[in-house]
Amino acid sequence: MTRAEEFEELRPLLFSIAYRLLGSVSEAEDAVQETWLRWESSPTAPASTKAFLSAVVTRVSIDVLRSARVRRETYVGPWFPEPLLADPYEDPERAAELADSLSMAALLLLERLSPLERAVFVLRDVFGFGFPEIASAVERSEAACRQLAVRARRHMDAGRPRFEADRAERDVLASRFFDAFSEGDVDGLQELLAADVRMVSDSGGKAPQWGTGIAGADKVARLLVSLVAPFTQIGGTVEPHSLNGQPGAILRDRDGKVINTWTLDIFEGHIQTIRTVLNPDKLIHVGPVADAWSVLRQATQIRRPPAS
């Protein structure tokens, strides 16, 4: 097998590691590409190609993460990871860990960790790497990595999000939610929303912040209903879609361009949080991006009562 073939075989794993470390599709793809360049120029063949490439992509991602954390300190409004349509890496033996670590809530929780803690946690608890491999990847001793793992688990367990265990039941609830939204059914929406449900959006200052900071079942339900009629009248569509392993949707304008994405956190039969990503920089990989400001102006004109 050639180096290129070996790399392509491991590309899904490398991307999945990088995405969980960076929370960015574009940055993860760049980290994987940099890993290929280093692999291509390496004069020696490692004992384990998987261990070598995983270590390289981890180191590259840690460097990117350190600079990204500085940028995020000046980010306008809430920061969310870039929505991921599908995880390219599959491992039946670690399916639960992979799925749990992909959700928006889990990725946001990872933001609380230091870059080294995050790397050790992802490699150990998500992908099941041994401590000798992890120590090589982060260039620390095995003892130090074990301590980092303990601290990371403590932080994660303290704020670990809880999700609906039954995925089929979760998906049915999400389907009912989008049906009620499309029908403008306030009562139907309220029935599905947790009493303290929150609707939060990430626009990065580059798009309107629809619904940011709205909390409570009644307020969120009425906000959603106020949006749906003008949105559909201007040709907008709601496309239910799994995002980050969670029920969600892609909202598109009349031309099929992406306006934003929604992801739903579900627990105990109710929707706990609705997260919307509107920042156009974070939607490029989803498809051609709409001008959200233009969509908002069109919808506002529809909602505005006619002059007497």
UniProtKB/TrEMBL annotation:
Domain RNA polymerase sigma-70 region stretches: 7-69
Alphabetized GO MF terms: DNA binding; sigma factor activity
Any Pfam family matching the protein: Sigma70_r4_2
Keyword annotations of the record: Sigma factor, Transcription, Transcription regulation
Family: Belongs to the sigma-70 factor family. ECF subfamily.
PANTHER family: ECF RNA POLYMERASE SIGMA FACTOR SIGJ, SIGMA 19 FACTOR
Record protein name field: RNA polymerase sigma-70 factor
